[in-house]
């Protein structure tokens, strides 16, 4: 269909259309005919009939009350009948694949005129490809699924599989060998933790916390035990189908009776008489992706202690959705295992060595959460900077109030410090063996996660104060702030609660304390 031809009008011509049945307004040099829409306008008719709005340039009033995306919705685009002669629309919100030029909306390494010792040209190219990928394939689905609560669309999972993103999200390693990464943009042996950081941060930029977890977050924590501790036969069967996005896996450790206290788990696995199978009984709670998972990496109490076993969905496995503060798109579930029979070949690591399997997972999981938290905080800074400049109160922009600037200052400082510390730790990870990482970075990562999530919660609180009522409203101007404020605590709990992690960091430091050090 040919695009509607847009006419050109002068402001004087527009001004003549200021009556209820003949109502035009100008927004950013675009002329809209609201004559029929006014009765449907969610903000009512009276605001449109105001003497300073009807037939006038309503740009400032509009942006004080609506997000730009309102005008991008097809049903509202159709209201545009022309443009103002000699003027061009200049306002934009987010441009697919592009960097934001709002100060602090991008980390310094992506901001014009700044430098970084950490990122290579390959990282920069990779970031551009990943930004485009997330904007084109993930963003819209994230918004829609966050809203309807359904799991991420299979088409997105398939697109991610096509460029091997599911494999890359497991970090660098042997599992990448022979794969074409992002259409060959990065060689498997060159892929490092900064590439992975980029992936996580670009996905976090979509601003949909539940969806972010739904997008195979369960795999990020549930597959490493299979990769690191599974038999070759098990890996050959399970890993390719998960990387292909055909099967889903989750990590099932916590229970109603035991969360952080993994030694208190009550799910049992007992050997069958012939010793060929485990018979698993028990429950698990708050398991991300479990509603749609095909595989469950499960912590079980066995004769020798704690053992991790890969259980496949089948007879005796039931999952029931749990409604948490974020959307059901994450697939959070309560699981029951009733006499589930599992081949002993599905044991991950040593029998009784489960605590080692579980602990070895934590550093990477927590670091991924830090990547995501740092980026989400930054998106909130961008939202607040835009709002504080476009919204007027008491006759002037919010940003002219010192209290608002003071909140922004704290938010920016927190975001920058989290990202800088994160990049330092990421650099260490790139230069340490897995064992060195466990010895030297467990404390650092625990501190960073606890610090990040404290910063995040402060920022969420400040952002709500800056947005006012809109910061607690699910639709409209403050929708990202409301979402962030509602979901920010997930990061503070998953992968270890704040106080527990801070304490872990200090205890790790004490282990390295020289015995003879004195004041
Ligand atoms: C093309 C023109 C317009 C369209 C398509 C439009 C659409 C909408 C929509 C969809 C909402 C619901 C809230 C949201 O999703 O953000 C809304 C709310 C509102 N609109 Fe408009 N609008 C237009 C022009 C205007 C203008 C010129 C004014 C002038 C003051 C106005 C005043 C309001 C008010 C006061 C609200 C309620 C805001 C709130 O609940 O915080 N609108 N509008």
UniProtKB/TrEMBL annotation:
One of its GO terms (molecular function) is acyl-CoA dehydrogenase activity. One of its GO terms (biological process) is fatty acid beta-oxidation using acyl-CoA dehydrogenase. Its cofactor is FAD. It comes from the Eukaryota. Residues 6-85 form the Cytochrome b5 heme-binding domain. Keywords: FAD, Flavoprotein, Heme, Iron, Metal-binding, Oxidoreductase. SUPFAM superfamilies: Acyl-CoA dehydrogenase C-terminal domain-like (SSF47203), Acyl-CoA dehydrogenase NM domain-like (SSF56645), Cytochrome b5-like heme/steroid binding domain (SSF55856). The keyword Flavoprotein applies. GO terms for cellular component: cytoplasm. Pfam families: Acyl-CoA_dh_1, Acyl-CoA_dh_M, Acyl-CoA_dh_N, Cyt-b5. PANTHER family: ACYL-COA DEHYDROGENASE FAMILY PROTEIN (AFU_ORTHOLOGUE AFUA_6G10880)-RELATED, MEDIUM-CHAIN SPECIFIC ACYL-COA DEHYDROGENASE, MITOCHONDRIAL-RELATED. Belongs to the acyl-CoA dehydrogenase family. This is Acyl-CoA dehydrogenase/oxidase. It comes from Suillus discolor.
């Amino acid at each position: 269909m040919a695009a509607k031809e847009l006419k050109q009008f002068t402001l004087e011509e527009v001004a003549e259309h200021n009556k209820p049945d003949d109502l035009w307004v100008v927004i950013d040099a675009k002329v809209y005919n609201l004559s029929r829409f006014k009765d449907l306008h969610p903000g009512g008719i009276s605001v449109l009939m105001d003497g300073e709005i009807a037939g006038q340039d309503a740009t400032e009033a509009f942006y004080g009350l609506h997000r730009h995306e309102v005008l991008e919705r097809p049903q509202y685009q159709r209201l545009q009948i022309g443009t103002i002669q000699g003027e061009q629309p200049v306002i934009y919100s987010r441009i697919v694949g592009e960097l934001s030029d709002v100060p602090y909306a991008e980390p310094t390494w992506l901001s014009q005129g700044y430098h970084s010792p950490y990122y290579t040209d390959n990282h920069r190219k990779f970031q551009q490809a990943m930004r485009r990928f997330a904007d084109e394939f993930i963003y819209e689905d994230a918004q829609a699924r966050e809203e309807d609560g359904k799991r991420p669309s299979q088409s997105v999972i398939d697109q991610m599989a096509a460029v091997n993103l599911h494999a890359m999200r497991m970090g660098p390693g042997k599992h990448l060998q022979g794969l074409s990464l992002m259409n060959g943009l990065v060689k498997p042996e060159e892929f490092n933790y900064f590439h992975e950081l980029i992936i996580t941060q670009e996905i976090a930029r979509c601003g949909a916390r539940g969806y972010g977890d739904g997008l195979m977050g369960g795999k990020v924590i549930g597959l490493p035990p299979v990769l690191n501790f599974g038999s070759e036969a098990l890996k050959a069967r399970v890993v390719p189908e998960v990387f292909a996005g055909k099967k889903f896996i989750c990590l099932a450790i916590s229970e109603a009776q035991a969360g952080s206290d993994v030694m208190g788990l009550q799910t049992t696995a007992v050997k069958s008489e012939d010793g060929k199978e485990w018979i698993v009984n028990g429950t698990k709670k708050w398991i991300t992706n479990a509603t749609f998972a095909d595989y469950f990496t499960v912590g079980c109490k066995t004769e020798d202690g704690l053992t991790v076993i890969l259980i496949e969905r089948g007879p005796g496995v039931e999952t029931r959705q749990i409604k948490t503060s974020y959307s059901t798109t994450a697939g959070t579930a309560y699981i029951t295992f009733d006499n589930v029979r599992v081949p002993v070949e599905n044991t991950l690591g040593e029998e009784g060595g489960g605590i080692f399997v579980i602990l070895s997972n934590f550093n990477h999981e927590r670091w991924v959460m830090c990547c995501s938290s740092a980026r989400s905080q930054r998106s909130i800074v961008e939202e607040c900077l835009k709002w504080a400049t476009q919204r007027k109160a008491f006759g002037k922009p919010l940003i002219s109030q010192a209290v608002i600037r003071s909140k922004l200052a704290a938010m920016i400082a927190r975001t920058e410090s989290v990202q800088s510390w994160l990049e330092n730790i990421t650099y260490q990870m790139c230069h340490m063996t897995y064992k060195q990482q466990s010895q030297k970075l467990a404390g650092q990562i625990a501190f960073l996660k606890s610090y990040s999530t404290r910063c995040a919660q402060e920022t969420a609180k400040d952002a709500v104060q800056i947005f006012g009522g809109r910061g607690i409203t699910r639709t409209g101007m403050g929708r990202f702030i409301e979402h962030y404020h509602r979901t920010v605590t997930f990061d503070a709990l998953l992968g270890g609660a704040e106080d527990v992690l801070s304490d872990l960091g200090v205890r790790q430091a004490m282990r390295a304390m020289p015995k003879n050090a004195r004041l």
